[in-house]
Design a protein that fits this description.
Helix content is about 50%, strand content about 10%. It contains 16 helices and 7 strands. It is an alpha/beta fold. The strands form 2 sheets. Strands 2-3-4-1-5 form a 5-stranded parallel sheet. A two-stranded antiparallel sheet has the order 6-7.
Length: about 375
């Protein structure tokens, strides 16, 4: 540990390490793909940026946002009212469904929009029409609609080009299929009314929204940030490079040995760099507090995630990767030629429910045996 860093407090060292960003192979490839999708003139209205939890999506989105702001820097200086990029995090609901009203309020508040609590579509109708029966529910809907119009007007007046929604999978936390369809319609309406490109960032749960509508599939593009997969030898080599970057950074403060146990660190992070870095940050904090001489696999074991939790993370990642896998041309051709009902690999139609009192198929005894009891079976519908 060199002298200047030796004078730093634990809090300052942790801040330096958590802010350390390095270009590893998977991040570089994904970043180029994301920027290509964002900057294309004929880009789709909705870009879905997805990947397993803890892979580093938020870090990459922050880098993309900074790149966009640098691109528009001159125009922002010349036009102070120009806001090219708006970022917001989708907050999970307290109740049964995602709240668009809360989403609009948070977006407008972050952009310092005034008089948010005064946005009503029908401010005087209750007094002008006292017998109309406007209840609290009608007022609540009125406020939500007014806030939506305020967001649309803000994006138009500020000439916003991109709306970046982090943790966007929270928008799919709804209690009915109808509400899930509504989420897509709200996003589609926002792009149509304002002309913004929406970047949705979240886990593989975001892919569920593509199954609800062919319109969103046509209007959207998926960019995947994959984990390092141990089934590919190239990924294992790239993961060892990641360990090398982190080992060098940690060694500025405490001697660190990671590469000699590369398979262990891969297994305990499921190949996700974000999980690995969070884990090593915790190791660094305790190593500084306890005055240990080195950070290695034995010391890191105390702070590793349990295998049961890692199993859940790995299963979610594998299921998401399966959703991203394309189907063959023969499957598409079969469907186009034969339609849904006759195409192979399509789910069979559900069986029709029987009328009340109608028996299910079963075998009834027929004939008699030597004891006078039925023998043999027949099938009755």
């Amino acid at each position: 540990m060199n002298a200047p860093q030796n004078q730093k407090t634990t809090s300052e060292i942790l801040t330096d390490f958590t802010s350390y960003v390095f270009n590893h192979p998977s991040a570089l490839t994904t970043y180029r793909e994301l920027m290509t999708a964002i900057s294309a003139e004929a880009s789709p209205r909705v870009i879905i940026f997805t990947g397993p939890t803890g892979v580093g999506k938020s870090t990459l989105v922050k880098a993309a946002c900074n790149r966009l702001l640098q691109h528009y820097q001159a125009q922002m200086v010349a036009e102070p009212d120009f806001v090219p990029v708006v970022t917001i995090s989708a907050v999970p609901p307290n109740g049964n469904a995602f709240s668009w009203k809360d989403f609009y309020i948070r977006l407008l508040t972050d952009q310092h929009e005034p008089l948010i609590n005064r946005k009503l579509l029908l401010p005087r109708q209750g007094s002008l029409l006292p017998d109309h029966g406007l209840g609290e529910r009608a007022l609540e809907h009125s406020v939500a609609d007014a806030l939506r119009r305020a967001v649309e007007e803000y994006c138009r007046r500020r000439r916003t080009r991109y709306l970046i929604i982090d943790e966007a999978h929270h928008m799919l936390l709804v209690n009915t299929q109808q509400r899930l369809d509504c989420q897509f319609e709200c996003l589609k309406s926002l792009t149509i009314q304002t002309g913004v490109t929406i970047l949705l960032t979240g886990t593989y749960r975001l892919l569920d929204i593509l199954e609800q509508s062919g319109q969103l599939t046509r209007r959207s593009q998926v960019v995947n940030f994959p984990r390092y997969d141990m089934r590919r030898s190239s990924d294992l080599l790239s993961f060892r490079k990641v360990l090398g970057f982190l080992e060098a950074e940690l060694s500025k403060y405490i001697p660190t040995r990671l590469d000699e146990n590369a398979e262990y660190f891969y297994r305990k992070s499921a190949g996700c760099v974000g999980i690995l870095k969070d884990w090593l940050t915790l190791c660094l904090e305790h190593a500084l507090d306890e005055g240990v001489t080195a950070i290695d696999a034995v010391f890191a074991e105390r702070f590793a995630l349990k295998n049961r939790g890692l199993l859940t993370i790995a299963e979610e990642a594998c299921l998401g990767e399966a959703k991203l896998a394309d189907v063959g041309d023969d499957r598409l051709t079969d469907l186009l030629k034969n339609g849904v009902l006759l195409a192979r690999d399509e789910p069979s139609l559900p069986t029709r429910r029987r009328r009340p009192g109608q028996r299910n198929p079963k075998r009834d005894p027929v004939g008699k045996d030597e004891r006078g009891q039925g023998s043999g079976f027949r099938t009755a519908a």
